[in-house]
């Protein structure tokens, strides 16, 4: 039986991965992106083994190995004193335990590799410069009304529609999930820096995690080790607009005025910082009839567990395995897909929220946190996430 005709809305990491995985399963995919280009603002992301193994299964391993970095571990430090609190085992330990690497990558590099793979698939039609105006669903088919920047409209009919259109998903709203995401009072600052410009003690092949009561900082090498990606969290009651609002370095340095010298020096190096606000939302309903969601459209994840991209990649791989060739079975199996992802998505969201509280603990609570991290040691700090990193589709 011929594959389904599918529409995937959103060409971010989740939408690109889903389109590729679905096409490899014999389906015909129209991938719709509201942007007209694919320039990705510089930022890094982490591909833990639950995600990297799925990308390798899609035959992207060789391309990714040319651009990723594989940190040896995570060094956890106190922001104010700079003292080591603990460590997390990555590198060879991760590979041996989970059968896949823990990579860090420039988002633009991952997007380019996925986009090249999508463009090489005859079964995928990429449509840009179109926004979703409306979604309709019947027993026999689903349809999208798309609109261009100049107001031209078109209708696309498909056996199923997959909403991978991010936190402010229009497809999600068409499922009746109209509650807006909630701002949690934190803004993330991001920058990239040539590795040679970083303080020597922070320029090695390790991820740095700095913890304090009013925020935290993460940094790691990307682009094959040429650059360092830096993310700093600022507690702020007022959100910023968009995903790339400019930030003044002096404002961030004032937030971290009491930081250890090495961290202050690292934060002072980048001349350009971009900011985005951290929003949260419970999973809610993620399928209805011939419509389903994946990635941030289904379950935004706060960045305190580094699982936003990974969870979207898991969604894509799971959907590709479960979606049938028979169009009459689509509604039931989309519901099965949504149900199969719910408990895990809930758990990942909850763990990310918990990590945020732990990272920003008050001094008294932080004292106990630091003792536990030291007692655990690097390997146990990793194996407590066996449930997360060991994920396999159908496993």
Automatic annotation (TrEMBL):
Q: Which Pfam families match?
A: FAD_binding_3
Among InterPro entries, the record links this protein to: FAD-bd, FAD-dep_Monooxygenase_BioMet, FAD/NAD-bd_sf
Cofactor field = FAD
**Does this entry carry the keyword Plastid?**
no
**Which molecular function term from Gene Ontology is one that the record holds?**
monooxygenase activity
Which ranges carry the FAD-binding domain?
7-349
Which terms are listed as keywords in the entry?
FAD, Flavoprotein, Monooxygenase, Oxidoreductase
The source's superkingdom equals: Bacteria
Gene3D superfamilies referenced in this protein's UniProt entry, alphabetically: FAD/NAD(P)-binding domain
Check the record and name the PANTHER family matching this protein: GERANYLGERANYL DIPHOSPHATE REDUCTASE, MONOOXYGENASE
What is this protein's name?
FAD-binding protein
Q: What is the lineage of its organism?
A: Bacteria, Pseudomonadati, Pseudomonadota, Alphaproteobacteria, Hyphomicrobiales
